[in-house]
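Exercise 7.
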Amino acid sequence: MEKNATIIGVCAAIGTNGEGIVRSEDMTIFVPFLLLGEKAEIRILKTKGNIAYGKISELLTPAEERVRPVCPVFTKCGGCQLQHENYRAQLKFKTELVKNSLEKIGGVKVSILPCIPSDKSYAYRNKLQMPIGKVGGENAVGFYAERSHRIVKTDVCPIHPKWAENVIRETYRFMQTCGLDGYDEQTGEGQLRHIVVRELQGKFVVTLVSTVREIRGIDYFVHLLGNIFAEFSLYLNINADQTNVIFGKEFILVAGSGFYECEEAGIIFEAGAQTFVQVNEGIRGKLYAQAVEKAEFGETVIDCYAGGGLLTAMFAKKCGRAYGIEIVPEASRCADKIKERNGLHEQMTNICGDVAQELTKVLEQERGATIVLDPPRGGVERGVLQLLAKSDVKKIIMISCNPATLARDLGILTGMLKEENGELKKSDGAEGKFEVVSVQPFDMFPQTKHVETLVVLNKK
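Solution. The predicted structure, written as tokens, is:
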């Protein structure tokens, strides 16, 4: 099988990224946007050994689950992978994704509860994050194509509320009126790199990422934002480095207070431009409620990777004692304000630092604690997992947005993976210190391949 060859194939399975898998001539072919059981004419784009990558030239037999995508740049933009599939099928895919990841990567075979659906399958995101650059010499606001920094220009994004469309429109108006240019990654020219907007229960924090400190007409942009939002703040973030990181270190408050108070499950919390807040408010409430249910009154909870402290406060309020460990200073300051605002001085302790360093100290004081792990996509550091395996921790509550790293971490904690010569290999689990009690996926990210998962482990 060679590049540019055309074959007729039937999708026999679905891959971890939601792509179809076709088998032909002893080759495994990955085909994006092909659903299980569909027959299609496929053009081969790339081959490597017995693996090939293709695209649909013509769909010959559509599946019943196929629906018409609502986004004009679906398949071009890298943000969504599943808009061609009805929502019930998306939920089934995500349940199977978690199950297969745990078994194949971590060696963990357990029952997986059905994925909990989002109340909104579109217009659910409370955070907009868009690069600003050049396409064909023209200013472009959009999203990156899959696995690239090529901007796909768009005027609308259906997984965001209507306000996102308004922000895109007014950003173009601002740039055109004030003679501003999008950033060119090749030449380093252009003033504006990103526009980031976070909604906090009807209030908005807008961050304009720039290569320079002085932006022509910034007051005009404040005026334009005022036509969209009743209450908002605007930051100018300075990032002149050649980097993939969105934010630079310096934030300049241009308008508004910069932080806003919100309420969740009786806890008043504050968030700003850098504070981590789950992007789907409806699912966040369901996820956090179930997580808190897993802890008991009288337990001490240590919340690792605690973000702005909302979940830490919820555990403190229920259990009576909770620690939050978070490395981002702004988020840790928000957690301190939560403690003060909600009268949790005796129940809640916030620590700004690296989990790998700070957790050891807390475990020396609090024996038999319940651990909460909500790490970034890269998962939990190996040292933290090893520390937990040696500790007298009785229960671990894990929240993960990445089934692959979740599977790896669970494999280590349960002993189904062990380290030999610096590599992780499958084992019989005899040396594992914990056992999985429950696994519950949540659809935090409808229309995409991503899924959030809540796992509870008990000490063996």
